[in-house]
Structures are given as structure tokens and as C-alpha cells.
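Contributing new records

If you add data, match the layout below exactly. Sequence lines come first and carry their own label; structure lines follow with theirs. Keep one chain per record. Anything else will be rejected by the validation script.
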Amino acid sequence: QVQLVESGGGLVQAGGSLRLSCAASGRAYSTNFMAWFRQAPEKEREFVAAINWSGGTTAYGDSVKGRFTISRDNAKNTVYLQMNSLKPEDTAVYYCAAKGSLSSQYEYWGQGTQVTVSS
């Protein structure tokens, strides 16, 4: 079993920055691949970014490329999402997710952290 706990959300003005953290506990294998998703009110959940165990491979959603950076510190069992140049449309609940293999679905999810960007 894996538990994921997000932190770092809050209220920020447009153009500002925030760093989200996701602390993982449980089987290390189950966190080989970790990702951030977000969901705004009345919208579908959207992929934000993903990273593999080594950190050598990352992927980003088109709407955040060039502004957000995903990273991980395996010694701390923590994944980060550095968000720069924030826009009001980035307002959403951000969720951390984890899975063990590339071909599987994300099976472990955190409770989410609210990010609100004011214009």
C-alpha cells in the first residue's frame, strides 16, 4: 500500500510561483512512476507532469510546458512540482499519483491540494 500526501498549495497572484510537494510512504516499487494531475471546477481531470524513478525521464502537459518543472528526491520519498509564471487558468486542485510500472494505470492518489491564481 502507498500513501501520498500533497502540500504547498495556496493563493498566488498571476505571474507568481508555487512549489508543490508530494510525500510518499509504502512500497518503493509502487512509486516508480509519479505524476501530477489537476482538476478545475466543472472540468475533467488533466495531466500536468510525470517523472520516472531516476528522474531522467519527464513529461508535461501542453498547457504547462516551459512553466512547470517536476522533480523527485528519492532519499526523501518526495516529488515536487515547481510552478512558475502562474496563470488564473492554472487554478485547480492538484493531485499526486503513483504507479509501479509504465504500462499500468496510476493506482495511488493523494487527497489533493488547492492552488488558486488571482488575476
